[in-house]
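Fold it.
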Amino acid sequence: MSQCKEEGAARGAESRRRVALVTGASRGIGAQVARELGARGLHVVVNYREKAKRARAVVDEIRAAGGHATAVGADVCENTEVQALLDTINHRFGFLDVLVLNASGGLERGADSGYAMRLNRDAQCELVTSAVPQMPAGARIVFVTSHQAHFSPGRPVPEGYEPIAASKRAGEDALLAVKPALAELGIALKVVSGDMIDGTIIVRLLHRRDPFAVEARRDHGPLPTVEEFATAIADAALQPEVADTTYVGGSDYRW
């Protein structure tokens, strides 16, 4: 009987803990955002598409630091997998307080010409639409983007990055269009835009295609680190007075 009471108390404590879903969180920026949110007391659902081992490693890090986390696989471009992901969250917690739209792509080898738009626009909007019913008033959605996309098409972009810039800009515009409807439900939408982030896969890929574009960004000053960018994303998810759009690095873009 005492064991039942202890388990019930544990479930009660977990049900009061805020819950965050971070897409594409098995590595890089998403993994660091998951660590940040875990350190700030949230139960983090670490979403991954294929890298289950890496996702479990992120969960283990969060737990080792005293936090709470779960790894759940789902390809955000597949509606059935997204629904299964959200059903898992709903079954265990009954709500979702923070949704970080971090998963993105378009430079993958072998990707078809429409993949970037399906991932960076369509999948983001469909995930928001599906998640909103289990997000209470006071919840937040954070869309993660880059300056090269956010300021598109007014600024030149590195060679090969054009499909990502166009699709992420389209995704941001589509989400901003539903921002008033989200606000009526008490759900805030925040955007975090960063310059090229040092040490990320995307910067390494861009450097192979257009090294001069990457070095040109470095000429404006040190590129933001993964840790700096992830901290800004976590702040956007949790801080009460954070701006609707947060800019990390690349001050020249805003002038």
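The chain has a mean pLDDT of 89.
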